Amino acid sequence: MVIASHSVGSQVNGRPIPQQPPERASTREDRFETSPRRPIQIVVVEDNAGDVDLLRQALADQQIAYHLLVLEDGRKALSFFEGVVNEGRELPGFIILDLNLPAVGGLSVLEKIRRIPCLKSIPVAILTSSTLPEERARATAAGVEAYWSKPHSLDELELLGLSLSKFFRQHGVT
Prior knowledge:
Number of domains: 1
Oligomer: single chain
Structural class: alpha/beta
Largest sheet: 7 strands, mixed
Radius of gyration: 15 Å
Order of helices and strands: EEEEEHEHEHEHEH
Helix content: 25-40%
CATH class: Alpha Beta
Strand order of the largest sheet: 1-4-6-5-7-8-9
CATH architecture: 3-Layer(aba) Sandwich
CATH superfamily: Response regulator
Number of helices: 5
Shape: globular
Strand content: 15-25%
CATH topology: Rossmann fold
Protein backbone atom coordinates (compact mmCIF):
# COMPACT_ATOMS: atom_id res chain seq x y z
CA MET A 1 0.00 0.00 0.00
CA VAL A 2 1.23 3.48 -0.79
CA ILE A 3 -0.02 6.30 1.37
CA ALA A 4 0.28 9.99 0.52
CA SER A 5 -1.04 13.09 2.22
CA HIS A 6 -1.95 16.32 0.53
CA SER A 7 -2.65 19.47 2.46
CA VAL A 8 -3.47 23.01 1.49
CA GLY A 9 -0.26 24.20 3.18
CA SER A 10 1.90 22.45 0.55
CA GLN A 11 1.22 24.50 -2.56
CA VAL A 12 2.87 26.06 -5.57
CA ASN A 13 0.88 28.63 -7.53
CA GLY A 14 -2.19 27.77 -5.47
CA ARG A 15 -2.03 24.05 -6.34
CA PRO A 16 -1.22 21.25 -3.88
CA ILE A 17 2.13 19.59 -4.32
CA PRO A 18 1.73 15.80 -4.37
CA GLN A 19 4.09 14.15 -1.92
CA GLN A 20 5.71 10.97 -3.15
CA PRO A 21 4.76 8.15 -0.80
CA PRO A 22 6.96 5.20 0.13
CA GLU A 23 6.22 1.99 -1.77
CA ARG A 24 4.71 -0.71 0.41
CA ALA A 25 2.25 -3.03 -1.29
CA SER A 26 -0.41 -3.13 -3.98
CA THR A 27 -2.74 -0.26 -3.11
CA ARG A 28 -2.25 3.46 -2.76
CA GLU A 29 -4.04 5.78 -0.37
CA ASP A 30 -4.18 9.52 -0.75
CA ARG A 31 -5.75 12.24 1.37
CA PHE A 32 -6.56 15.80 0.43
CA GLU A 33 -8.63 17.94 2.73
CA THR A 34 -9.46 21.60 2.15
CA SER A 35 -12.32 22.11 4.55
CA PRO A 36 -13.69 20.81 7.84
CA ARG A 37 -16.29 18.67 6.03
CA ARG A 38 -15.73 14.94 5.92
CA PRO A 39 -13.66 13.88 2.90
CA ILE A 40 -15.28 11.78 0.19
CA GLN A 41 -14.11 8.17 0.44
CA ILE A 42 -13.21 7.24 -3.16
CA VAL A 43 -12.00 3.89 -4.43
CA VAL A 44 -10.20 4.21 -7.77
CA VAL A 45 -9.45 1.10 -9.80
CA GLU A 46 -6.77 2.26 -12.23
CA ASP A 47 -3.45 0.75 -13.32
CA ASN A 48 -1.93 3.92 -14.79
CA ALA A 49 -0.28 6.14 -12.16
CA GLY A 50 -0.35 9.12 -14.55
CA ASP A 51 -4.13 8.85 -14.87
CA VAL A 52 -4.44 8.68 -11.08
CA ASP A 53 -2.37 11.86 -10.85
CA LEU A 54 -4.71 13.58 -13.33
CA LEU A 55 -7.69 12.51 -11.25
CA ARG A 56 -6.04 13.88 -8.10
CA GLN A 57 -5.41 17.16 -9.88
CA ALA A 58 -9.02 17.37 -11.07
CA LEU A 59 -10.23 16.82 -7.48
CA ALA A 60 -7.75 19.35 -6.07
CA ASP A 61 -8.63 21.98 -8.69
CA GLN A 62 -12.25 21.81 -7.51
CA GLN A 63 -11.15 21.87 -3.85
CA ILE A 64 -12.91 18.57 -3.23
CA ALA A 65 -11.93 16.99 0.08
CA TYR A 66 -11.15 13.33 -0.54
CA HIS A 67 -9.58 10.15 0.74
CA LEU A 68 -8.44 8.12 -2.24
CA LEU A 69 -7.71 4.40 -2.23
CA VAL A 70 -6.13 3.24 -5.50
CA LEU A 71 -6.27 -0.39 -6.56
CA GLU A 72 -4.13 -1.23 -9.58
CA ASP A 73 -6.08 -4.10 -11.12
CA GLY A 74 -9.46 -5.76 -11.20
CA ARG A 75 -8.43 -8.74 -9.07
CA LYS A 76 -7.27 -6.44 -6.26
CA ALA A 77 -10.51 -4.49 -6.55
CA LEU A 78 -12.62 -7.62 -6.21
CA SER A 79 -10.55 -8.71 -3.22
CA PHE A 80 -11.03 -5.29 -1.61
CA PHE A 81 -14.80 -5.37 -2.14
CA GLU A 82 -14.98 -8.91 -0.73
CA GLY A 83 -13.25 -7.50 2.35
CA VAL A 84 -15.86 -4.76 2.57
CA VAL A 85 -18.55 -7.44 2.67
CA ASN A 86 -16.84 -10.15 4.71
CA GLU A 87 -14.70 -8.09 7.10
CA GLY A 88 -16.98 -5.11 7.59
CA ARG A 89 -14.60 -2.56 6.07
CA GLU A 90 -15.94 0.96 5.61
CA LEU A 91 -18.00 1.43 2.48
CA PRO A 92 -16.61 3.95 0.02
CA GLY A 93 -18.77 6.90 -0.96
CA PHE A 94 -17.82 6.61 -4.60
CA ILE A 95 -16.08 4.20 -7.00
CA ILE A 96 -14.18 5.13 -10.16
CA LEU A 97 -13.27 2.31 -12.55
CA ASP A 98 -11.06 2.13 -15.60
CA LEU A 99 -12.25 -0.35 -18.21
CA ASN A 100 -8.88 -1.62 -19.42
CA LEU A 101 -7.38 -3.24 -16.33
CA PRO A 102 -4.94 -6.09 -15.80
CA ALA A 103 -6.19 -9.39 -14.37
CA VAL A 104 -9.95 -8.61 -14.42
CA GLY A 105 -11.47 -5.90 -16.64
CA GLY A 106 -13.39 -2.93 -15.29
CA LEU A 107 -16.73 -4.03 -16.73
CA SER A 108 -16.40 -7.42 -15.01
CA VAL A 109 -15.59 -5.64 -11.73
CA LEU A 110 -18.62 -3.38 -12.19
CA GLU A 111 -20.96 -6.29 -12.92
CA LYS A 112 -19.71 -8.23 -9.89
CA ILE A 113 -19.97 -5.35 -7.41
CA ARG A 114 -23.46 -4.49 -8.66
CA ARG A 115 -24.54 -7.98 -7.55
CA ILE A 116 -23.40 -7.32 -3.96
CA PRO A 117 -26.35 -5.83 -2.03
CA CYS A 118 -24.37 -3.47 0.23
CA LEU A 119 -22.49 -2.03 -2.77
CA LYS A 120 -25.48 -1.49 -5.09
CA SER A 121 -26.22 2.00 -3.82
CA ILE A 122 -22.64 3.30 -4.14
CA PRO A 123 -22.28 5.60 -7.16
CA VAL A 124 -19.88 4.21 -9.76
CA ALA A 125 -18.28 6.12 -12.62
CA ILE A 126 -16.18 4.84 -15.48
CA LEU A 127 -13.10 6.91 -16.34
CA THR A 128 -11.60 5.47 -19.48
CA SER A 129 -9.77 6.09 -22.72
CA SER A 130 -12.07 3.61 -24.49
CA THR A 131 -14.35 5.03 -27.14
CA LEU A 132 -16.17 1.79 -27.96
CA PRO A 133 -19.96 2.33 -27.91
CA GLU A 134 -20.58 -1.29 -26.88
CA GLU A 135 -18.46 -0.82 -23.73
CA ARG A 136 -20.41 2.29 -22.81
CA ALA A 137 -23.70 0.45 -23.41
CA ARG A 138 -22.56 -2.52 -21.29
CA ALA A 139 -21.47 -0.17 -18.47
CA THR A 140 -24.81 1.64 -18.58
CA ALA A 141 -26.68 -1.67 -18.52
CA ALA A 142 -24.61 -2.75 -15.50
CA GLY A 143 -25.68 0.35 -13.58
CA VAL A 144 -22.87 2.88 -13.93
CA GLU A 145 -23.95 6.42 -13.02
CA ALA A 146 -21.35 8.28 -15.13
CA TYR A 147 -19.02 7.54 -18.02
CA TRP A 148 -16.12 9.97 -18.53
CA SER A 149 -13.23 10.08 -20.97
CA LYS A 150 -9.74 10.46 -19.58
CA PRO A 151 -8.44 13.99 -20.07
CA HIS A 152 -5.86 14.69 -22.76
CA SER A 153 -5.57 18.46 -22.30
CA LEU A 154 -5.81 21.06 -19.55
CA ASP A 155 -9.29 22.01 -20.75
CA GLU A 156 -10.43 18.39 -20.54
CA LEU A 157 -8.87 18.10 -17.07
CA GLU A 158 -10.86 21.14 -15.94
CA LEU A 159 -14.05 19.65 -17.42
CA LEU A 160 -13.39 16.40 -15.55
CA GLY A 161 -13.03 18.32 -12.29
CA LEU A 162 -16.28 20.18 -12.92
CA SER A 163 -18.01 16.90 -13.79
CA LEU A 164 -16.74 15.28 -10.58
CA SER A 165 -17.91 18.22 -8.48
CA LYS A 166 -21.36 18.26 -10.10
CA PHE A 167 -21.66 14.48 -9.82
CA PHE A 168 -20.80 14.49 -6.11
CA ARG A 169 -23.39 17.21 -5.45
CA GLN A 170 -26.09 15.37 -7.43
CA HIS A 171 -25.47 12.13 -5.56
CA GLY A 172 -25.18 13.75 -2.16
CA VAL A 173 -21.62 12.49 -1.77
CA THR A 174 -20.18 15.84 -0.64
